């Protein structure tokens, strides 16, 4: 793959070694020198077989400082729950109007929440919402009557993590403009939540490796043992 001159120069700043968390964060910020506020992302390689469904990991993390991006939330519901959604900060709320808009191809939101009583109608939109990752799901916490708490959590910085087909978790943990301590706080909370989601079928270490990077920057390996010892739970 042909890399840009800027990327190649940034790559020279990163040694082939595992960095302590604080140093890795500083390197990620240093190499985030594009002409916009780059996302800082964490990639976690898990010691699982992604072909076995009982080893897959999925969960949520309430990042204390958010990701730097406010999610656009649509709540599909009827009656009093519409007001609850609006009061909680939802960007869009309603039902019939948005069902028709979705059928017409509209999907200008990041998350869709729905109350259980309307799911029979929403399930018919699976072929439209599923490929975009917008289909409400009880497992994802987006099918619920607890509308206000879900909307507020998503707006504050609640993120979902799940393993991909390679057995990795990729998740944004902030922006290059964040203070290093805020990135550190987010990363430690995320790691605790990933560890808490460890399936019982996994024996031994869950974490193989951890890498941090900016959107346009090179990957920076983190010492995973030291990282996990820094969490409240400690160890791997």
From TrEMBL:
A Gene Ontology cellular-component term: large ribosomal subunit
Domain of life: Bacteria
Record InterPro entries: Ribosom_uL1_bac-type, Ribosomal_uL1, Ribosomal_uL1-like, Ribosomal_uL1/biogenesis, Ribosomal_uL1_3-a/b-sand, Ribosomal_uL1_CS
Keywords, sorted A to Z: Repressor, Ribonucleoprotein, Ribosomal protein, RNA-binding, rRNA-binding, Translation regulation, tRNA-binding
Pfam families: Ribosomal_L1 (PF00687)
CDD domains hit by this protein: Ribosomal_L1 (cd00403)
GO MF assignments: rRNA binding; structural constituent of ribosome; tRNA binding
GO biological process: regulation of translation; translation
Metal-binding among keywords: no
Coiled coil: none
Annotated function: Binds directly to 23S rRNA. The L1 stalk is quite mobile in the ribosome, and is involved in E site tRNA release. Protein L1 is also a translational repressor protein, it controls the translation of the L11 operon by binding to its mRNA.
Family, per entry: Belongs to the universal ribosomal protein uL1 family.
PANTHER family in alphabetical order: 54S RIBOSOMAL PROTEIN L1, MITOCHONDRIAL (PTHR36427), LARGE RIBOSOMAL SUBUNIT PROTEIN UL1M (PTHR36427:SF3)
Subunit structure: Part of the 50S ribosomal subunit.
Protein name as annotated: Large ribosomal subunit protein uL1
Taxonomic source organism: candidate division WOR_3 bacterium SM23_42
């Amino acid at each position: 793959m042909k890399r840009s001159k800027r990327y190649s120069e940034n790559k020279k700043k990163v040694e082939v070694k595992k960095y302590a968390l604080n140093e890795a964060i500083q390197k990620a910020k240093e190499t985030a020198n594009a002409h916009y506020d780059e996302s800082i992302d964490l990639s976690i390689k898990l010691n699982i077989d992604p072909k076995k469904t009982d080893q897959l990991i999925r969960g949520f993390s309430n990042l204390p400082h958010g990701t730097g991006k406010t999610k656009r939330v649509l709540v599909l519901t009827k009656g009093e729950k519409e007001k609850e959604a609006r009061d909680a900060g939802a960007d869009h709320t309603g039902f019939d109007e948005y069902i028709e808009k979705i059928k017409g191809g509209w999907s200008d939101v990041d998350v869709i929440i729905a109350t259980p009583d309307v799911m029979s109608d929403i399930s018919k939109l699976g072929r439209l919402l599923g490929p975009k990752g917008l289909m409400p799901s009880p497992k994802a916490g987006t099918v619920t009557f607890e509308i206000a708490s879900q909307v507020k959590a998503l707006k504050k910085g609640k993120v979902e993590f799940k393993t991909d087909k390679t057995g990795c978790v990729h998740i944004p943990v902030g922006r290059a403009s964040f203070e290093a301590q805020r990135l550190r706080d987010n990363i430690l909370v995320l790691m605790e939540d990933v560890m808490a989601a460890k399936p019982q079928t996994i024996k031994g270490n869950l974490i193989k490796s951890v890498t941090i990077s900016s959107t346009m920057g090179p990957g920076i390996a983190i010492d995973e043992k030291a990282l996990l010892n820094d969490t409240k739970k400690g160890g791997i």
